[in-house]
Amino acid sequence: MGYEFFLSNFNQFVLILTLVVMASYFILASISARTMSHYLKENSFVDYDVILSSDIAPRISIIAPAFNESLTVVDSVRSLLTLQYNHFEVVVVNDGSTDDTFQLLQEAYQLKRIEYKIDKVFETEPILSAYRSTNTAYNKLLVVNKENGRKADAANVGIMFAANPYILVVDVDGILSKDALQILAKPFLEKSEDRRVIATGGVLRIANSCVVRGGRIVEVNPPDGFLPRMQTIEYLRAFLLGRMAWFKLDGLLIISGAFGLFEKEIAIKAGGYNRKTVGEDMEIVVRMRRYMLEQKQKYQVTFLPNPLCWTLAPETFKALGNQRRRWTRGTMETLWLHRKMFFRPRYKLLGMLSMPYWGFLEYLSPLIEFLGILITISLLVLGLLNLKFVLLFLLFAYSFAVLYSVITLLTEEYTYHLYKKNSDFRKLLFVAFIDPIYFHLFIVYSAIRGNIEKIRGYSSWGVMEKKGFTRAS
Amino acid sequence: MWTTFKNLGGLELFLTSAITLYVSLGIVAIVLLFISRSSRNYKEKLEIKYTPAVETVLFSLLFFNKSLEEVLALEEYKSNYKKKTFKKVLLASAFKLHINYSGDFNEKLNEFYRKTKLINVSMAKFHSEDWDQVCTGIRELTQFNVHDIEPELQKYLITKSTNTILQLESILGLIRLRGVEGLSILLNYKKPVNDWVQTNILHAIRHSDRTNVPDFSIFLKSKNESVVVLGLRLIAMFNQGKHSDLINEMFMLNGLGRVKNQAELTLDKLASINLG
Hints:
The structure holds 2 protein chains of 2 kinds. Chain A has a domain at 58-221 and 253-312: Spore Coat Polysaccharide Biosynthesis Protein SpsA, Chain A (Alpha-Beta Complex). Chain A contains 12 helices and 13 strands. Chain A has helices spanning 2-43, 73-81, 101-109, 150-161, 180-190, 226-248, 264-269, 280-294, 317-337, 348-381, 387-415, 422-455, and strands spanning 60-66, 88-95, 111-114, 127-133, 141-146, 166-170, 175-176, 196-206, 211-213, 216-219, 259-263, 299-311, 470-471. In chain A, the strands form 2 sheets. A 10-stranded mixed β-sheet of chain A has the order 3-4-5-2-1-6-11-8-12-7, with helices on both faces. In chain A, a hairpin with a 2-residue loop joins strand 9 (211-213) and strand 10. In chain A, helix 6 packs across helix 12 (422-455) and helix 8 (280-294) packs parallel to helix 9. Chain B is mostly helical. Chain B has helices at 2-7, 9-62, 68-72, 75-78, 84-100, 104-115, 118-126, 131-143, 150-160, 164-178, 195-206, 225-237, 244-253, 257-275. In chain B, helix 2 (9-62) packs across helix 5 and helix 10 runs parallel beside helix 11. The chains are: A alpha/beta, B mainly alpha. The A-B interface holds A 4-5, 8-9, 11-12, 41-42, 44-45, 47, 50-51, 53-54, 56-57, 186, 189-193, 385-386, 388-389, 392-393, 395-396, 399-400, 402-403, 406-407, 409-410, 413-414, 417, 422, 425, 429 and B 1-2, 4-5, 8, 11-12, 15-16, 18-19, 22-23, 25-26, 29-30, 32-33, 36-37, 40, 132, 135, 139, 165, 168-169, 192, 194-196, 198-200, 202-203, 206, 225, 233, 258.
């Protein structure tokens, strides 16, 4: 009897949790839609070119950690150097690459070793050397060689070398839109006297099958492969309907590691990137916000819905699984490191809503879903559960998932309209129908494995699959 | 609770209703998607269709030395001028040409704008209830030098609206109409003028009529700290080195960080210009 009681209550718990998740998604989507509509209206009157001739525009150091990036590094750095902005530098941190990343850079940009002096504000792996180009066309480029210490360590070295008060940490294999810095700079100019903007993020889009020319996306296509195509919808859901709402609520916890602009002073005071976590992008945002709240300083973390950065999504289950297990471990580590913030009014909305939401709905959901599947199967086998109910419940969850993806596509259509061809749009729409029974289950499985890895003390980034962009002929 | 599982009646009804709702909403969303895409495609096609006619009209006026009367008698104009999309494309093209040209070309465009009653389209936007329409109206009217709206612009800036975009458009509109003198509205301005607004103002000033440049030291007397900062930036921009002593005094005496910092920057800039 006790066994039956537990099982039945668990299933009701799953149902209630499902309803809470659905309700929260609808609430977030409606906040996002409203915020984005207002943003787009305002944005239609913005002339970002005014920043180009301005002395007031914030000075930015772009930090690009690079580890074994020989396939893309030369083009990627060129793409960074040709961004439309006046006051910036590019700091490439070669994180002990074992391939010819550095040699390629040295040859392409005529690098010459320089003497350097930095304020060693962080503990890092040893810095070996620094280089500047002998060609004045590349005078914005600085290359630093260091021993391998992973992305967080390389980003910290980049921060120490950065000459400017704002740092933009990017993945070297990402492609920024040419006006990305102009758009990112605006919130820093708009800030009020008493509230500093400490971080800004933008929308990351999937670049698989998009055509690249001169380091820029010239043709947007949905990915040919099913797996990256599903990630396209997933990214749209997360960025357009999720993060925009959290920004509006002032509870944004994550700025993508592939692309985030930070105020250097606060990043340093908060301790820089945490070298012990694999979720350093989320962790630094939480820590900077926590620092500001503990110091009782007014601040803002902003998010821009513009598609500012394009990245290649994993194309195989192996690579995707590796990435998602790492993300799960990163989330666990960040939530654990900052567990003190949970339900503490001192941390305002961050402590009272954002952290609990991430803890209970984002992190625990896959685990509960997995347990729910196991227990439902057990109940069915034991004859304790009505098959009709199970099927109805599955259809209920499936129809919601499809609806949410369709709403995401509708949002994309009304806002940025990047997929121009009807055939492209049909491809994405089709994916919305198969995502819940194909992609989502794999994500749940990866999250479970990520938990197991964390419990076993696994802390590696795993092997990253590298692939180049499709270039225009 | 267990009885609920056993009986399932209420639960089944709930799940069935929710599924029906989700499926219906999904169908509505998909229909909206396709309507939006086809309507966008239709509009784009229509705009492309009218572009050659618009180009013939405007190029005849500007580059082929035809009089306004001759242009208005063109078949391309006569057969289309009542169509809404044609007017929209015509106004947008005339607006872009006005930005890119000056002198006689702009005089011709101003006359064309009034004679073809495109001004009424902009006026309707200017008097709209939607702030974004008002902003578009301001841009168009001030680009085509319609001075009648100046009092309204001042009202938007000072009292009528709290919308920051509308306020910025009003300042930029005044600069377009009056040149550097348009800035005089800021002398008694009480709200903070953030760096984004200042960037836009300085950019507009760079591209405006700079024949009667006022003495910007008057801004340094403002009680609004952000206006003082703007004044310092304008002094640097126009190289009004005669105020160096006053700025130096401000730098020495002013305890406010922002003004002090800008005073230092302005002094450095004035010194470097003088050295150069």
